[in-house]
Write a structure and sequence with these properties.
Number of strands: 0
Number of helices: 3
Shape: elongated
CATH class: Mainly Alpha
Distance between the termini: 34 Å
Order of helices and strands: HHH
CATH topology: Chorismate Mutase Domain, subunit A
Largest sheet: none
């Protein structure tokens, strides 16, 4: 991440915004890595019907909520965010599967 200060040390909105922008940039880089795993999954799975796995989706969301709970973040919004992330990942993986 860029040179930013910890949130607790921010004294101006410029510092807050710089921190948020740096975190957003890091999150996008992590999402690119996550979507790389979707490319790998599309390459590895032998059948398109294996892309959607509701059991795995539920597990991923539950894991995210548990991680949220461990760092004192609200579980429901994290679960909703991860639901959207998993659905976007499934859509991406389906497209990747169809390209191969």
């Amino acid at each position: 991440m860029q040179d930013t200060i910890d949130p607790e040390a921010c004294t101006t909105m410029a510092e807050v915004r710089a921190g948020v922008d740096a975190v957003d940039q890091a999150l996008v880089a992590l999402l690119a890595r996550r979507f790389g795993y979707m490319d790998a999954a599309a390459r590895i799975k032998p059948e398109r019907g294996q892309v959607r796995d509701e059991g795995r989706k539920a597990q991923v969301i539950a894991n995210a909520q548990a991680h949220a709970r461990a760092v004192a973040l609200p579980e429901a919004p994290i679960g909703a965010l991860w639901d959207q992330l998993v659905e976007a990942s499934i859509a991406y993986e389906l497209e990747a599967f169809d390209r191969r």
